[in-house]
Design goal:
alpha+beta; three-stranded antiparallel beta sheet; 7 helices
């Protein structure tokens, strides 16, 4: 009797363990993969679960897959350009798994699908394309960056399709390309020298202009002095009075006197 009760309790426990279930929440922007691992009944497999609460057998487990756009950065710090100069820059690949095919992505390529199947292929494409340009084109020509990104976008999509990876390549972006540090130092020195030269030229030009202006003013002053029949002393006195004109702005007549004799009247 006791043996029968024990067997019944054991069977009930087994049935409860088999039929009991777990639940979890699939976040927004994700898909859940229910990895089926039945103890006794059923078969292995993968099932896609949408956002929200998901219930699954206790023997299975849930793997969340992010299906939002994700950007991957690839560093290139030793790429040699066509003129055999090392340059460094970054490339950004923006990709998005196809939400309705995450089970294919997981089953055929795994969670580390990028590192195992895509990364090296992408890096090779970048190197093969970038090394067809010289350092000046890579560093200074905006069209070069546009051409490289367009090429990587097109070839990257072809590669993903060829491998059957259910991921869309949304965008490819390229950072500024920098030459070696020695080249940067040389460029800065050249720019500084050019700036000094421009400053010297501008100062020289300003000095020449100043001298020319003073010469023209002197000529004009001499002509005025001659026209008004003024001596040098009278003209200088007139200049002084004009400088102090604010103090004499209410005066109607000004008389210049040489010695005790008035010589010029009614100068405003």
């Amino acid at each position: 009797m006791k043996k029968t009760i024990f067997l019944l309790m054991l069977m009930v426990g087994m049935i409860m363990s088999i039929t009991s279930c777990s639940s979890d929440l699939v976040d927004q922007g994700s898909r859940g993969l229910v990895i089926k691992r039945p103890y006794i009944f059923g078969t292995d497999g993968v099932e896609v679960a949408n956002e929200g609460r998901v219930y699954y057998a206790w023997s299975s487990n849930l793997v969340p897959i992010n299906v939002r756009p994700d950007r991957v950065k690839e560093d290139f710090d030793d790429l040699t350009s066509s003129d055999r100069t090392s340059v460094y820059f970054d490339i950004y690949f923006t990709m998005q798994p196809l939400a309705d095919q995450v089970d294919v992505l997981y089953t055929n390529f795994g969670l580390d699908w990028y590192a195992k199947n895509v990364e090296q292929e992408f890096r090779n494409m970048v190197r093969d394309k970038a090394k067809t340009y010289d350092m000046n084109q890579l560093c200074n020509d905006p069209k070069t960056s546009i051409e490289i990104c367009a090429y990587l976008q097109s070839e990257g999509e072809k590669m993903l399709k060829k491998l059957g990876i259910p991921v869309k390549l949304l965008a490819v972006n390229m950072s500024a390309v920098n030459p070696p540090q020695a080249v940067i130092v040389e460029r800065n020195a050249t720019a500084a020298a050019r700036q000094r030269e421009q400053t010297i030229n501008q100062n020289t030009k300003n000095e020449v202009q100043r001298q020319q202006t003073e010469k023209e003013r002197a000529i004009a002053d001499k002509m005025y002095q001659t026209q008004m029949n003024l001596s040098t002393e009278q003209y200088m006195e007139l200049q002084r009075l004009q400088t102090d004109r604010v103090a004499y702005n209410k005066c109607t007549n000004v008389t210049l006197i040489k010695g005790n004799v008035p010589t010029v009247n009614n100068l405003r």
